[in-house]
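Students often ask why inverse folding is considered easier than folding. One informal answer: many sequences map to the same fold, so there is more than one right answer. In these notes we will look at a single instance of the problem. The structure comes first.
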């Protein structure tokens, strides 16, 4: 089955000479959640704008649902729902009318049963007659999603979907996004919340300097690039590390009661067994062990720093 979005050698160069996108190649499969991570100015917004047909690309091709975004822009755009970071609603309009109007703007015939289903899935049905101005920030963001889904798109772009939303509402939004994915909608999100990408995304793409550094399955990415730390709580404080342990990447805490050992999960051997034996030989007694897998934030920072 062909990817729902195909991007081939996509470049975007502005008149100033700035290369916002540099030969980007990316396939996005139907029904997946993919998170795009990158620092400010990395090219995330430009990439989304190019896919949505909002800017003229310099070279390369982008197809959405089989339609070229430049040759068949209306058909390509009809496949896409876009939820921008900024909340833009007619504050004097009701939720119901807002959603119905947006569907009409895409040339779709009225389908109140479908719109009712969308509002119910977003926990907005009981607010359908409320004016947008009366809604909370979290509810307004849900209305934005409902508007983006009103014309039954196959692809949904979420630009910072939980920006400014409290922790409880953020997790509610995650549940909404998963349900959309389960219904067959392909979701591409940008986020500054690293834990959001780690929690929700099937795949993660890292972009910097207009280039895609990698696109990888989330679990595989964590396993391949992650590092682990092992914290060893000692029975008695250690004034200094003995010379016999100098070959290990060990960090002693200020009070001397904790040693931290960092190792690469990709290495054939961790060296832990030998290190524990050498600790015992040095008459250093360990009270407790605690391991910690590096977070996606650690992986992201490592990748970005390597290409800086």
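Output (designed amino acids):
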């Amino acid at each position: 089955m062909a990817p729902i979005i195909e991007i081939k050698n996509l470049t975007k160069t502005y008149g100033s000479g700035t290369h916002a996108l540099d030969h980007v190649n990316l396939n996005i499969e139907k029904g997946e959640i993919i998170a795009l991570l990158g620092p400010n100015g990395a090219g995330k917004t430009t990439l989304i704008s190019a896919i949505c047909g909002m800017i003229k690309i310099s070279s390369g091709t982008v197809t959405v649902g089989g339609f070229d975004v430049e040759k068949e822009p209306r058909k390509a755009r009809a496949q896409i729902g876009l939820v921008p970071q900024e909340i833009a609603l007619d504050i004097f309009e009701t939720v119901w009318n807002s959603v119905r109007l947006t569907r009409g703007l895409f040339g779709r015939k009225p389908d109140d049963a479908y719109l009712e289903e969308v509002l119910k899935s977003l926990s907005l049905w009981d607010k359908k007659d409320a004016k947008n101005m009366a809604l909370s920030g979290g509810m307004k963001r849900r209305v934005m999603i409902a508007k983006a889904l009103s014309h039954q798109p196959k692809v949904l772009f979420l630009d910072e979907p939980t920006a400014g939303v409290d922790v409880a509402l953020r997790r509610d939004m995650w549940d909404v996004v998963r349900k959309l994915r389960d219904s067959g909608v392909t979701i591409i999100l940008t986020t500054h919340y690293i834990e959001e990408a780690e929690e929700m995304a099937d795949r993660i793409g890292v972009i910097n300097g207009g280039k895609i550094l990698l696109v990888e399955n989330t679990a595989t990415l964590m396993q391949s690039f992650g590092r682990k730390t092992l914290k060893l709580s000692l029975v008695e404080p250690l004034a200094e590390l003995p010379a016999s342990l100098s070959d290990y990447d060990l960090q002693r805490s200020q009070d001397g009661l904790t040693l931290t050992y960092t190792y690469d999960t990709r290495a054939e051997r961790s060296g832990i067994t030998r290190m524990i034996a050498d600790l015992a030989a040095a008459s250093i007694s360990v009270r407790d062990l605690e391991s910690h897998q590096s977070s996606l934030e650690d992986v992201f920072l490592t990748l970005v720093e390597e290409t800086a």
